[in-house]
Amino acid sequence: HAQSSDAFTEMYARKMNITTDRAAQRIAEQSEVSALNARLQKERPDTFAGLWIEKTPELRVVVRFTGDAKGQLAAFTKDPHYVAETAPRSLELLLATQQEMMHQLNAAGINFEAGLDIKRSEITLYVLDPETAREALAELLSAVDFIRIEKTTGFIQTTAASGGHRLDGYQ
């Protein structure tokens, strides 16, 4: 396991054009960030609004909360690399709204792709026909103003591909 960890660290160092020591430090920092993310989702679901890592110009972790962002972050870390920002809504509200939206679209037989934009505190919905989606979601859209509907020309098609098997065929 240590060997695969070392290989990953070396690969990361090459990709980021940094020393292996710095790469190991960043990997450890990312583990800390992941742990904080999980802890905040569990302990502050009503106010935690998500987080992300910015690597340039300097490494920092942006942590968002509704309400007093700085005060809430201070209860979890004093590390100056962690920066608090105020968000208009919690991650829990975004996720619950996304689930409800997906349920309504599935019930209406509408194909879609959706994602969360934590930086904008929005849900982005991609559909072939935005008007049909707006009609299906009319009640939900009257209650929330953070679903952005975008027209798409198609969706990513996933395929099942089997690897490692011998293929026979005619020449």
Task: Walk me through this protein's architecture.
The protein is an alpha/beta fold and 171 residues long. It has helices spanning 2-16, 20-43, 69-74, 91-107, 130-136, 138-143, and strands at residues 48-54, 60-65, 82-86, 112-117, 122-127, 147-151. It has a three-stranded mixed sheet. A three-stranded mixed sheet has the order 4-5-6, with helices on one face. Helix 1 (2-16) packs across helix 2. It is globular. It starts with a helix and ends in a 20-residue tail after the last strand.
What features would you highlight for this structure?
6 helices, 171 residues, alpha/beta, single chain, 6 strands, 20% strand, 3-stranded mixed beta sheet
C-alpha geometry: globular
Radius of gyration (CA) equals 21 Å
Could you give the order of the helices and strands? HHEEHEHEEHHE
What's the count of strands? 6
Beta-strand percent range: 15-25%
How would you classify the helix and strand content by structural class?
alpha/beta
Q: What are the segments in which pLDDT stays under 50 over at least 5 consecutive residues?
A: 165-171
pLDDT averaged residue by residue: 90
> Helix tally?
6
Q: In whole angstroms, how far apart are the ends?
A: 44 Å
Can you list the strand order of the major beta sheet? 1-2-3
Q: Helicity, in percent?
A: 40-55%
Largest sheet: 3 strands, mixed
